[in-house]
Amino acid sequence: MNLTINRDVFLPVLNNLNGVVETRPTLAILANVLLNVSPQQLRLTTTDMEVELSEAISGEFGQTGEVTIPARKILDICRTLPEGAEITLSVEDERVNVSSGRCRFSLLSLPAQEFPLVDPGDADISFTLPQKQFKSLLDRTAFAMARQDVRYYLNGVLLEAQNDRLRAVATDGHRLALCDVDITIPAEEKKQLIIPRKGVQELVRLVRETEAEMEVVMSRNHIRVVLDDLVFTSKLIDGKYPDYNRVIPEISANPVRAQRETLKKSLSRASILSSDKYRGVKISLEQDKLRSLVHNPEQEQAEDEIDVEYSGEDIEVGFNVSYLLDAVSIVQTDKVRLSVSSPKSGCLVLPEEGGECKYIVMPLLL
Fold first, then answer.
1. Sign of the alpha-carbon dihedral angle for 57, 63, 66, 71
2. Distance (Å, rounded) from C-alpha 206 to C-alpha 122?
3. Which DSSP state fits 49?
4. Which of 91, 93, 121, 103 is nearest to 7 (CA)?
5. CB contact at 8 A, 138 and 145
6. Nearest C-alpha neighbor of 69 from the set 98, 49, 100
7. Three-state SS for 204?
8. Which of 33, 262, 268, 354 is deepest in the core (most CB within 10 A)?
9. At what angle do helices 131-139 and 197-206 cross, to 10 degrees?
10. Cβ 74 vs Cβ 33: under 8 Å
């Protein structure tokens, strides 16, 4: 196999695919990128056995063949070459020779037939939607997923499709984020799957803020996302997601309405003196006032008061201030609604109008 490709075409694809390559892979072949050449297409693939990325480059290659080369090394080589440089790759025995101008590199190859490609199986449902809608779903929920929780099914994002609605849910047991988008889905029965953390992070990186269509294919054990010439495939977390509807409180008759930026700054000021371990803040609600109160183990105190719209009973309830700030920050309206029914109930954080996104922060005993 002997092919020539322009550095400015090759480099963006290598950048896209290197996100899944492990620094210290369990198998040596997983540090490599698979190059599969056909007369009019070059397809590159990387995987860590959980997530697979594959992208095609169209061109006149006039040959067929496949080879694997170290992914990070070929990426670094391309990065250091000048813009517009032509790169030639030729296979000789167990090595791939890379040349460009007066530069020469000889890289060790591993057998292409040993490269572990993912078989996603038969599709249960598939649908298309604008990339910006899918990206918005993940951006507004992924922050709440757990990190290395023993409840492994929480270490990812639940994707739920039913009745022309696509929903994303994430929780770590202390907070929950939920977001819906309306799309056309050919599924009357509910289809649920859990995308693992690494898959979610890669999707957030790859999906663009654009109206361009993307295809989502759900199967029993995998999710596949097609973005033009890029194909993302991820294994799913095998487990039953908890019934998240049970922890979503009803909106109280007298929710708090506050300017989002004003509330963020107030919570941020109070959080300066919060405990590094618990990050606790006590929220005190009175007629048209919200006070943030903090006491830390060094006997230091902070109090910050802002004007809000509130006409309910006086309430004091504790929260993790970081979780509360995350929820308030992700809301995309100028005003935010906080619904707190009692000191033992969670705080429901909502945008000024509409309910396509909901955020719940569970209380702390302070």
1. negative
2. 24
3. S
4. 103
5. no
6. 98
7. helix
8. 33
9. 130
10. yes
* d(C-alpha 237, C-alpha 240), whole Å: 9
Encoding tokens for residue 347? 């705080």
DSSP letter for 277, please. T
Q: What is the pLDDT of residues 171-203, one digit of tens each?
A: 999 999 999 999 888 766 789 999 999 999 999
Residue 58 Cα distances to 36, 64, 275, 303, angstroms: 12, 13, 56, 61
Cα-based angle 170, 172, 178 (whole degrees, multiple of 5): 25
For residues 50 and 107, give the distance between their C-alpha atoms in angstroms, rounded to a whole number. Answer: 26
**% of the chain residues with pLDDT over 90:** 81
Q: What local confidence, expressed as pLDDT, does residue 122 receive?
A: 86
Phi/psi region, residue 260 (left: phi>0; alpha: psi -120 to 50; beta: rest), is: alpha
Mean pLDDT of the chain: 93
